[in-house]
Design goal:
By secondary structure, the chain is of the alpha/beta class. Helices cover about 55% and strands about 15% of the residues. It contains nine helices and five strands. The protein is globular and about 45 Å long. The protein binds ligand Z5A.
Length: about 220
Amino acid sequence: MTKGLFITFEGTEGSGKTTQLRLLAALLNKYGIPHIVTREPGGSRLSTQLRRWILNKLDYKLMPQTELLLFLADRAQHVGEVVEPALKQGKVVVCDRYSDSTLAYQGGGRGFDMKLLKILNQAASGLKPDLTLLFDLPVEAGLRRALGRGQGKDRMEREGLQFHKAVRRVYLEIARKEKGRFIVVNANQSREAIYHEMIEKLIDRLPVAKKGKKRA
Ligand code: Z5A
């Protein structure tokens, strides 16, 4: 069976990962590499509904346990309905947030036990990303960017500085432990500089590299 490549994009609030994800998708398009772009929460039909519940901007108190289980439910559906079928077709799957978000936000931010979260992640989906790009920057800088969008704050964005710092700390810890899977990109620079760093670190791992060589 041909297997595609599963790439996840992670980072704290306002890290610019979505901007870079779109640029990578444009590069894959340019080289005619079959791919899909998806995200969590929100990548399947069901999760479009779930997303409203999880990230609602209304003054509605969601229990941390409820939040965690909704993210996991979203993942189970998303992987089965969207990610695995695309990988089976040999596509590159580019996904905005995945299971490391659960470890960073529910573990670092909300304080759930890491061992428990790993078991729950495994229960929702045993699928591991082949590659994870972590866009890292000081949380203050990211929050300034996110606020600059002027869209109002969602539930996570309303959390305090300590919450977001704990999220960043967990991301960096996982990246240190899983060097083979993680590529850490300095997100505290211009869009263009981030893009160049991302491509430089990623290019040899992409099917683009093989296509480029064939054409040369
Ligand atoms: N979550 C969770 O808790 N547990 C889970 O298991 C999962 C998720 C899967 C999803 O939010 C929330 O769910 C997320 C974690 C939680 N909450 N937080 N925080 P979302 O999908 O609504 O959004 P997001 O994933 O958090 O994205 P973001 O932080 O809002 O944006 P971003 O992807 O990091 O960045 P961006 O959209 O590309 O850029 C943000 C702004 O900065 C935008 O105006 C850009 O034009 C600007 N930008 C981008 N790059 C630059 C540079 N280099 N310089 C200056 N300005 C820039």
